[in-house]
Each structure stands twice: as structure tokens, then as C-alpha cells.
Amino acid sequence: MKRFKALTLIAATCGVMTVSAVTQAEALYEQYFSGVPTGIWNKEQISYNSSSKDISIKYDIYKNDTQKGSYPKLVSYEDISRKTNSATLKYRIKFDKDYSTTQGGKFFGIAPENHVTGCKEVEVNSWSARVGFANRVPQLYLYFQNKPDRCGQVIPSTTGAQLNLDQWYDVALYVELNSEGKYNAKAKLFIDKQLVAKKTGFRFHGLSDLTDEVKIHKFMLSTFLGSISSTSGAEYLEDQSGYIHYDTFKVIDGYAWDLP
Prior knowledge:
Layout: E1 4-13, E2 16-25, E3 27-31, E4 46-49, E5 54-59, E6 61-63, E7 68-70, E8 74-84, E9 86-95, E10 105-111, E11 128-134, E12 137-143, E13 153-156, E14 169-176, E15 185-191, E16 194-202, E17 216-227, E18 235-236, E19 242-253
Keywords: Signal
Organism: Neiella litorisoli
Protein name: Polysaccharide lyase 14 domain-containing protein
């Protein structure tokens, strides 16, 4: 169930009192950038922009005989304030004006305590949901029960629209866990409040009870391009390396893709 903070507004019109309730969904995780980032955001690749009060992440691209991607990967996890069975991850993104690579990658997500990534086997109590981009086209990237692919499943954009360079966009990832034993999980991706990708009718978890161990519990600071395990013997691709800018990360309880 969603929890709401209620704000009651009272107005008097012609001597008659009218009362309306405005609800605001509960924020389970919030990260603003009013100063130099700390904690999981204090990474070498992350730069703080004091004038615009946002951050930039540098994606350095390397290539060897078999692999290509940014290195090192940014992967950290942080608990949200309360476990829940549905939540919306929201943040803002801007591809730098000089961003040139077409390499696909992962761009943040949410997960349970036992999160699964990296082409590892999905257990009955593990799953994850992340935002992906390939050549600046948004997509979902999901690990769930009986997924058809060796790694996560890509759910491509229904529009195929590419995000512009040097322009801010609002990203919202909604996740709803399946009921006990049922195929009714949901994952939806919105860009500027427009639905661009979704998957329904599946199981994130395989438990007979919707227990705390499979509920949404982690914000995933998981962002990188492609995949490369080491820079040893690899070529640095300076012309394909670049910055992406981010601001205002939130995990909100329930279905909140349209909230500011």
C-alpha cells in the first residue's frame, strides 16, 4: 500500500468552508546536489558543478580484442528508507554537447536486498530493474524469473526516439512487484512523462509469499557503458569518451511518474 503525507487546504467562499485534500507521495530516497557529493556519490569519475548544482559523470571508453566499454564501472548500492512492493525512481539526465559514443549502457535502477546483475543466475528472491540507453535511445533492462536472455532482458523503446544532446530530460522508472506466485509484475519507463517502454505480466520474484526479502530496498548507483573487465592492454578511445550530467535522484513510494 502507498503511504501519503496529507496536506489539507481550507478556503472560505461566500461564508462556506470547503476542504480539499492534496496528497504527496512519500519519498524513500532523495539525493540533491547542493554541495560536493559525499557517500556513494563521492567517486573519482563524478564532478560537482557548483554553478548549476548538478553532477557530471565521465565515461572513459576502452577497447581490447574482445571487449569495449567504460572503465571503471560505477556500481554502488544504498538502502531506501523503507521496503515497498512498488516504487518510482526519478532523476534528470543531460547528454553533454560533445557526447559522441553510440555505446549502450546502464543508468541507475532499483532492486531488493538480493540484487542480481552481471549476467549472474537469477534466484527466487533476486531481481533488478535499471534504465538503459543505446545510442541515446532509452530502454528498460530487467533481471526477473525465467528471463529469456543469458544476461538481463532489454525492453526497447516503443518510439525509438533519440534524446538530444545538451538538453535536460526527466526520467522515471516505475516498478511493481508481482503478487505471490502470480505473473502480474510491471516495469515502465517514462521520459518527460511519456511512456517509452514497458513490460507487464511477468514475475520479478518466485516466492510463494511477498516477503520483505524481495521488496524494493536498494537504490542502484549503477552506471557504465558497454563492458570491459580491465584496461590492461586496452586502447583508450578519447573521441568516444564523454560526460553525462545528472540531477535530483528520488525513489518515491508507489506510482509517481508524473510527480515533480
